[in-house]
Each structure stands twice: as structure tokens, then as C-alpha cells.
Amino acid sequence: MSGHSKFANIKHKKEKNDAARGKIFTVIGREIAVAVKEGGPDPANNSKLRDVIAKAKANNMPNDTIERGIKKAAGDVNSVNYVSATYEGYGPNGTAIIVDTLTDNKNRTAANVRNAFTKGKGNIGTQGCVSFMFDRKGQIIIDKEECDMDPDDLMMTALDVGAEDFSEEDDSFEIITDPDSFSEVRQALEDAGIPMASAEVTMIPQNYVELTDEQDITNINRILDLLDEDDDVQQVYHNWSE
Question: How is 48-99 classified by DSSP, letter by letter?
């Protein structure tokens, strides 16, 4: 494990303004639509939908908004069909960036992603050009302030239900799982009453790149900000050590 905690970044995202929160709700809404189309509207029989609902609640999405999204996706056969696409490329000083998208217009999305890289002096690469530098894992972050369990007990609980790794940071605990067992582990922790600040399948960098040049830092922030503003972009992974 790198020991690189995402918790500060998660807290920062949650404390963003209403426009950013709206973007998060848009992202999760699309994930709900895709999960319902793939596995039906009943969370009891759809583990992917259960995971998205847990993500929605962790991001303070209201229950009625979640339920409306599920009903809309289940009841409207003519609703938008979202297609997933992943882009890989390089930011300043060889930083690696992966962009996951869900879109109803791949041409628009490809142009927007390319524009974000170009404006930040980066470039899009071919499929697979940087993804080998990341490990696909389930990642669960627990805020120490929200969890009163003894760390050793929490670790044993996590490992007993199938987690691969457990680490402690200053302000949080990080639980890592195999992506295939993520749903099972997340559900078991939820059933045990353990509060989760974040729970998702993600791409974790094997190594991090430090940027010291101010222009490089400005450029990578430009790329990340433009991608963050794009509703088609679901998730961005990078190996910049912020």
C-alpha cells in the first residue's frame, strides 16, 4: 500500500459549493440509471444498484432524489442510453490520467476531454497507455470521527468479511478489496453499522509523481478542473501527489 489517503480530497469535495454538489448528483444519477437498466430497480436483487445507493447516501443525496432516479430509470423505456468510454493520457511531467465517462454523445465527450488535456498542456494517449500504472481495487474510506470502533477490531472485521488490506491514516481508515468482492465487503460493513465516508471501485496508482514546477501544477489543475466541470465525466484518476 502507498499510504496515500484520499480522505482529505473526499472532504474537500463534500464541502464544495452547490454547483459542484449538483455535478456529483448528476454523476450518481447516471450511475443509478445504468445500474437499473442492467440489473433492475430492486436493490435487494441488484448489488450494483446497492453500491450506487450507498455512494449516493455517502454524498448526502436525499432519499427522495435517489428513489425518483430509480423510478425514472425503471419506468421510462425511452430514457437516455448512456455509453461508457474511458480515455487515458498524460499531464505535465509525465503524470498519468484516466478519465471514465458516461455519455449519450461520444463525439462531444471525446472533444471535451481532448480539449481539457490540450488546455493543460497534456495529451491523450492510446487505450492502455497509463492504466498499467494503476491497480483496480475496491476502496472504502472511514472517517475516524464517525467511527468509534477500536482500530484492531475494525481491521479484523474488515479482513473477516473478505478485505485484502487495511491501513490507518491520521484522520481515516482505508480498506482495500478485490473489485469482485467489493459489493460483498461493503454490504457486510454496512450491516455491521460501520459508517463509510466513501465506498467505490477505483484505480489506485502504484506510484505517485510529485510536481514542483508552479506552471506544471497550474496546468494539471487546469486539466482536472475542466474535466470536473464536464457532466459526461464520471471519475478521474491520476497519480499526482497533491
Answer: HHHHHHHHHHHTT--HHHHHHHHHHHHH-TTS---EEEEEEEE-GGG-EEEE
